[in-house]
Specification:
803 residues, mainly alpha, 36 helices, disordered C terminus
């Protein structure tokens, strides 16, 4: 499907054009307006396919990439990828619109928008890729581009540290995921996700099935900031607010959620999958909401709230995997509703959390601080921003009339229903699911009240603010207002979203179920007085009590000493690895060139000679060798004499002349072996290099004898003998190794293969063309680096701003 490929490639193309066009574009208009057109156009293009996707259609197209390894660029648009594609482009459009008014023109905007488009293209590649290797490539590109975005204000130490932590943890998870993908390939024989899903019954009994499951989940957990990998997300809040609103509410952190949803048809129904996904999700939900209450920075509070909400969505997908265990039946469809609630809350979270991040950015932009202890009383000065905070905060707390209430009620229904499941021995622990969910929801209500109350109510503390706050300009308010419209609109018209967006996504998660309409419940705001409603009322009542008595019980957080936190252990691990690597490096990086050659040669001998000795690769058969003539022996002795004399030479000129003797002797051997073209090449190269070296060395002082101990001298002799013996051993083994057909037989047919009658010229000009092309690519990259350093230097005002 050309549209999906266009959607993936367009952000990359525009990102490549920005460094070339930004100087001209800024004279016409703000660079952000040009960038805004990219996600907006893509959103409209994807939206055109919503009716067809709702009818159950999927769009697949394969572009051959490395077919010999079953790696093809296959794009796949179905209900699940459509949700994420719309979020990436839709929220991306609003974030870019917000950034136009949020970021100063003195910032390095061309870098910012280039990184943002790179990330957007990478995320679209993740959700639209059917091939595991292509998906992994885009997956790691999201880590690289997010690293650049988080470290955008690289003059800040905290920004660099946050970017490094995010990349370290997510790349570690990505490597784990890659190992899981390779195991799936071994088990299934294909890299195609669709084919793996179709043959899941065959691969479930494979010994690598469970290890692949665990490794893929590690990748998903690290990217989606699940416990205990959640520690990178709060530090990533050092990024500009548009980055936080985009990466950490709607896109990057949802990549792990997407991975779990996409692989639910493969691993769903396995006890290991159910317990890991649901329990880790619930623990993350509780731990994130519990820690959000103690935060004094608004973005840190939202960071932990994001961790909590991601845990909620993850747990729902874990609970929904029970549906794969039972299969399609009228009395078990109830258990699939957890996945429906996960998809619903996925969209809801993107709307209210995006609006809240933008709201916090507005407060920081207009008041000069995000510190709750310095804020208060902003409601009268910033009424529109206050309204955005109320809508987003109440939706996150799960209150009506906002969309978060609907999905939170479904969450309570799912954790209550799981108690009746007989599989996986849930009955014994089933009661813990609703208890943990309810307690975590209470803390969610408390931190939502802190967010709203401590920022907008109370006494205005102008003496603690850097500037007098006022309402933000309309351009900055427009994006969060649009998101708030969705927050309210979805509450009143949820079933349109359910039919056109959520139902086809459910068909992607449960592809073996014949009826998708039964998987999509009719969404009601009022179900009467039931257990879910009573749980919500309990959350509100207990939450208000805890919020009012916050000062009396908040000291309980001191029970958890700072030295025992996950961040502390991470910092200790990084410090230990840096100190250990520094000690190891200082041991071998002595600054002595002789030592470096010793390392290289010892490793060479140990690896090559060791392999030949301990394998059966050594094969000598001198019977077929031709006889050695007298003049050949004379040449060998001349080379030996020159090599030995070179060691004892006291002048550079003498050593260079002796080195030339070696080179010319090799040329004579080429003549003897009837390779005149190689002999001519050797003679030309040797003559030029010898002349150049003599010209340079003539003006250098004479060589000074090394003052080294006899032990050192003898070690050099021994190493030299072993290196020479190894090279000789390899040469003889290669000449006499006859287990495989010589490669020369392939090149004998050079005329038909490449149209050249000279086999040597054909090898150099045609068969090595790919190698030559790579060499040209290396030169191109070096040229681009030189061009970048010389032509794209930062402007003086940008340098002054950073300083």
């Amino acid at each position: 499907m050309v549209t999906v490929l266009f959607a993936i490639l367009l952000p990359f193309v525009c990102a490549a054009l920005i460094p070339l066009l930004y100087r001209r574009l800024r004279r016409v208009a703000h660079l952000g307006w040009f960038v805004l057109s990219v996600p907006f156009i893509l959103f409209l293009l994807l939206a055109r396919y919503i009716p067809q996707i709702a009818e159950g259609k999927t769009f697949i197209h394969t572009y051959e990439w490395i077919p010999s390894f079953n790696i093809n660029f296959t794009t796949y648009l179905d209900g699940l990828s459509m949700i994420f594609g719309l979020l990436i482009t839709g929220v991306g459009s609003l974030v870019i619109l917000y950034s136009i008014f949020y970021l100063s023109t003195k910032e390095s905007l061309h870098h910012f928008y280039c990184y943002l488009l790179l990330f957007m293209g990478a995320m679209l590649g993740v959700v639209f890729s059917d091939n595991l290797m292509v998906l992994y490539t885009f997956w790691e590109l999201t880590s690289v581009s997010s690293f650049l975005l988080i470290a955008f204000w690289h003059h800040r130490k905290s920004s660099r540290a946050g970017a490094r932590k995010a990349m370290t943890i997510t790349v570690f998870g990505g490597l784990s995921m890659l190992a899981g993908f390779l195991m799936l390939y071994v088990a299934s024989g294909t890299f195609s996700i669709r084919e793996i899903v179709a043959n899941v019954g065959v691969i479930r009994d494979h010994t690598l099935f469970i290890p692949a499951l665990i490794l893929i989940l590690i990748g998903a957990f690290t990217k989606s900031a699940q416990f205990p990998f959640h520690i990178w997300l709060p530090d990533a809040m050092e990024a500009p607010t548009p980055v936080s609103a985009y990466l950490h509410s709607a896109t990057m952190v949802k990549a792990g959620i997407y991975l779990v949803a996409r692989f639910s048809p493969v691993f769903g129904g396995e006890a290991v999958w159910f317990w890991l996904v649901s329990v880790i999700g619930l623990v993350t939900l509780f731990w994130g909401s519990f820690n959000a209450v103690r935060q004094t920075d608004l973005k840190a509070l939202l960071a932990f709230s994001t961790v909590s909400q991601l845990g909620l969505i993850m747990s729902l997908f874990g609970l929904g995997s029970v549906g794969h265990y039972y299969g399609y039946a009228a009395d078990t469809v109830l258990y699939t509703q957890a996945s429906f609630a996960a998809l619903f809350h996925l969209i809801n979270h993107s709307t209210f959390k995006g609006a809240l991040f933008m709201m916090v950015g507005i407060v920081d932009h207009e008041a000069g601080t995000r510190d709750i202890r310095r804020l208060g009383g902003l409601m009268a000065l910033m009424p529109i921003t206050f309204t955005i905070a109320v809508i987003g905060g109440f939706s996150m707390a799960g209150l009506p009339p906002f969309n978060g209430f609907l999905s939170k009620e479904m969450f309570f229904a799912a954790v209550l229903a799981i108690r009746n499941v007989e599989a996986f021995s849930i009955a014994d622990l089933g009661l813990l699911f609703p208890i943990v969910a309810w307690v975590a929801s209470i803390f969610t209500f408390v931190y939502c009240m802190i967010l709203i109350s401590r920022t907008f109510f109370g006494k205005l503390q102008l003496n603690k603010l850097d500037k007098k706050p006022h309402e933000a300009p309309l351009g900055m308010l427009l994006s969060p207002i649009i998101l708030c419209v969705f927050v309210v609109g979805i509450f009143f018209f949820p079933n349109a979203l359910g039919h056109y967006i959520l139902e086809p996504a459910m068909a992607s998660i449960y592809p073996t179920f014949p009826s998708t309409s039964e998987l999509t419940p009719h969404i009601y705001a009022w179900h009467g007085i039931n257990a879910e409603l009573l749980m919500t009322l309990g959350v509100i009542i207990i939450g208000i009590i805890l919020f009012k008595t916050l000062k009396s019980w908040k000291p309980l957080y001191r029970i958890f000493p700072q030295r025992y936190t996950f961040n502390t252990y991470y910092n200790r691990m990084i410090e230990f690895s840096e100190n250990s690597s520094a000690k190891l490096t200082n041991r071998y990086m002595t600054g002595n060139l002789t030592h470096y050659f010793v390392y290289i040669y010892v490793f060479f001998v140990a690896l090559i000679a060791g392999y030949f000795i301990w394998s059966d690769a050594i094969a000598f058969n001198f019977e077929k060798d031709s006889s050695i003539e007298t003049y050949e022996l004379i040449l060998v002795f001349v080379m030996m004499f020159a090599a030995v004399w070179m060691i004892f030479a006291k002048g550079r000129v003498t050593a260079m002349l002796l080195n030339g003797v070696l080179g010319y002797s090799i040329a004579f051997f080429f003549v003897i072996f009837r390779a005149p073209d190689l002999a001519l090449t050797q003679l030309v190269v040797e003559s030029v290099t010898t002349a150049l070296f003599l010209l340079c060395f003539k003006y250098l002082p004479d060589l000074m004898p090394e003052a080294s101990r006899k032990k050192t001298q003898w070690s050099k002799v021994i190493i030299s003998i072993f290196v020479g013996a190894t090279v000789t051993l390899v040469g003889l083994a290669v000449v006499h190794f006859d287990r495989f057909e010589p490669v020369a037989t392939y090149f004998n047919d050079s005329y038909e293969l490449a149209g050249g009658s000279n086999i040597v010229n054909t090898i150099l000009g045609d068969f090595r063309a790919f190698d030559t092309m790579l060499e040209v690519v290396v030169l191109l990259i070096a040229g681009l680096g030189v061009y970048t350093l010389t032509k794209l230097k930062p402007r003086k005002e940008e340098t002054d701003h950073e300083n």
